[in-house]
Amino acid sequence: MEFLNKIKLIQGGMGVYVSNWRLAKAVAMQKLGITAGTVSGTGLDWVYVRLLQLGDPGGHVRRAMLAFDEKFGIRIGKKILDTYFVEGGKKPSSRFKNPPQQIVRALDGSDIIPLPSQPTVPVALSFDNDNIELLIATGFAEVWLAKEGHNGNIFINFLKKVELPLVYTMYGAMLADVDGVIVGAGNPDGLPAACSRLVNHEVVNIDIQVLYREPGEDFYVPFDPHQIAEGKFTQKPLVRPALLAIASLQALVQTLAQSQSEAPDGFIIEHHTAGGHNAGPQGPIRLDSEGQPIYSELDEPDLAAIRQVGRPFWLAGGYASHEKIQQALAAGATGVQVGSVFALAEESGMKAAYRTAIFNEIKKGTEDAALVKTTLFSPTGFPFKVVQLEGTLADDDVYAARSRICDVGLLQQRGFSKPDAEGRRHLFQRCSAAPVEGFIKKRGLPHNTESRRCLCNGLLSTVGLAQGTNTKEEPAIVTLGNHLNSIRRLSHQGQYQYWVQDVVVDLLGE
Ligand SMILES: Cc1cc2nc3c(=O)[nH]c(=O)nc-3n(C[C@H](O)[C@H](O)[C@H](O)COP(=O)(O)O)c2cc1C
């Protein structure tokens, strides 16, 4: 993992599809080896299915899918194209056809899981093969496109909370020789070891959290690469990518460094001012007058303790300037991870209308604190940064006017019903941003639904892939970090657009 020590600037993974292959590639091609571009691995199956129904502008998805089939002598890419590609694109008045939701079942395909006779024996669950193929293929395609035509570093980012698709998409990314995997939003212990096993195509058991299980019960979905595509992926060992864990404080870094299985190769130390999801404050949650979580010194990482762990680390959250990078290096970091400033670059996947709306706010003089709020909107329960833009889910009226449909379901939790009349327990999936009655029927507490907004649909809308029609579509939700100085500087106070190259020169010099 020598190459890690050279990387001064990581462009952070930004879901869904904000940091897509174009952005990651543009970053990786600047100052080869000193930078890493990161694609977002979240929701790629949904993104690709929608791009195909828009007629696959530029033909990139088709190119990548055919390269996938050709490389391994398979027909999975072709099957995906046959299922979703619409020549010339769907009509603006028609909705997208969705891929199957990611639902876990008992091995017999039902939702009934008998009570355990031996609670200590982990129980295997099943997951649909079409889902698995789509996840592997889209993980491959996104990394393949990002890596095409250069030797720079391409990483892929995942949220640990979205636990089921992660391993399949990571395997797809590894089939395309991804250089690094970055995992946030949860404790990634076990993933470095899973990644090492996948190098040799060994079976990996994906842990599945199930609410209301019996004490001692554990559930997993077994993934055996030999069972997919008639074992065609398994001819040669893969290259082991670096695995970096995102942590906000030293405690998780120290725990992971002493993992019983395998430690991560490095750490991203992400401050709570970073864009996207953040760790909650230490101790009981306190809110300010606007309902934002209050952080304190307890939430500041102890960098001396992190240095002592002896693995490379990068600082994230407000580090997008030459001075802040020098500060990070002086503190012993290998470099920094930067997100927000790249999210507004021309190569970003964020729809131009939202980038322009943010520039307009900056031009008007709206201050950082008024433009970006820390909210509890996310169904994950983690704080989530939201840009205050009219017409988006940041607006309470827009939120109230939306039906609480849950038709994507990537953030659903799994749990058991209370026993039915025959004493059987059913496995369910639920989301706190879904219809309230349904959530309560699935043993949810009403107060946990308050203010929870659909990030799946919202984030797909942010990158121009909204479900709906030309008369009504899902509202977007836009995230950025608290520090917008670099965006102000590079856009000349919101007056002009900028490109990745401008950002890299600004941060690292000519
Ligand atoms: C639009 C946006 C989306 C993000 N999405 C993710 C994500 O899906 N997963 C993740 O680990 N981090 C995500 N982040 C965090 C970035 O990877 C990065 O750590 C962060 O932006 C650094 O702080 P900065 O925004 O102050 O530069 C996101 C950030 C932004 C701005």
Structural descriptors:
single chain; 510 residues; alpha/beta; 8-stranded parallel barrel; 3-stranded mixed sheet; 17 strands; 32% helix; binds flavin mononucleotide
Q: What can be said about this structure in brief?
A:
By secondary structure, the protein is α/β, with parallel strands linked by helices.
Explain what you see.
With 510 residues, the chain is α/β, with parallel strands linked by helices. It has a single domain, classed as TIM Barrel, CATH 3.20.20.70. Helix content is 32%, strand content 14%. The strands form five sheets. An eight-stranded parallel barrel has the order 1-2-6-7-10-11-12-13, surrounded by six helices. Helix 5 crosses helix 6 (163-175). The radius of gyration is 22 Å and the shape is globular. The protein starts with 8 loop residues before the first strand and ends with a helix. The mean pLDDT is 96. It binds flavin mononucleotide. Flavin mononucleotide (FMN) binds at residues 12-15, 18, 40, 42, 157, 159, 184, 246, 270, 274-276, 316-318, 320, 337-340, 343, 479-481, 483.
